[in-house]
Write a structure and sequence with these properties.
Helix content: 40-55%
Strand order of the largest sheet: 1-3-2-4-5
Low-confidence stretches: 1-83
Largest sheet: 5 strands, mixed
Shape: globular
Distance between the termini: 33 Å
Mean pLDDT: 77
Length: about 280
Amino acid sequence: MSTEPTIHPSTPLPRHPEGRNGGSRGSDMTGFYKVAVVVLSIIVVGLLAVVTQGPGQSAAPQATVTVTVDGEAPLQDPAPTSDESVNPEQDAFLTSLPRREDGDPLAKGRVDAQIVMTEWADYRCPFCSVFAEDTLPLLQPLIDDGTLRIEFRDLAIFGDDSINAAAGARAAGEQGLYWEFAGALYASLPNQGHPPVGDDVVGSIATEVGVPDMQKFQADYKNPATRAAIDADSSEAQGFGISSTPTFLIGTQVISGAQPLEVFEQVIASEIAKQD
């Protein structure tokens, strides 16, 4: 069980120990970074301590999140991790993050749904796969009745193959098959380690889900603009201080890890109660 204190905005946030591209930094540095991350996770960590914003925008109010050595939130980490104290400024900031764009292929549910859950994930993260396979289908009734909208954002932290996976999903999304591709990809990968996702895997999943125009799919998959969009989502998350996957924002509360269905239901219910 981990503690989840907050930090001041001026405190530097730790980054994923594998780096943006998941590369090795040598055995001498690996031990140092692991110790450093463990110490930092015991002391203080903030989700929104540092925010990448344009001129004239204020820094994000504080919230909390768990940092882990392997870049993935613990499977049974306590949740929600957000501060329940009344903080109108923080709540206003957090509720402004969902995009609510009509026709967004990376979103599931009505654009005017009562509650939006934003998920930051990496397709090669086994805990993200557990959520997608075991929990997400059980949330479908709340999506169907207009209560919940889910907006996916990439946090590709395990190297180039993570970007390949995300690019494949986005390319399928251009033909209306984003969630089908994502689900099939998760199902095809083992829920341990960070399995490789090369061009062959991406093409195989696209064929499996019935992408109608494979020529367009390949063009979108290789398009630099697709890769730039993935990098933009990942950079935004890191700007918020999010360094583990999966991380969820539900209304004004943060959940870290592939938590049981009951945790998501409890947080959704509490966010609905705030609106009454």
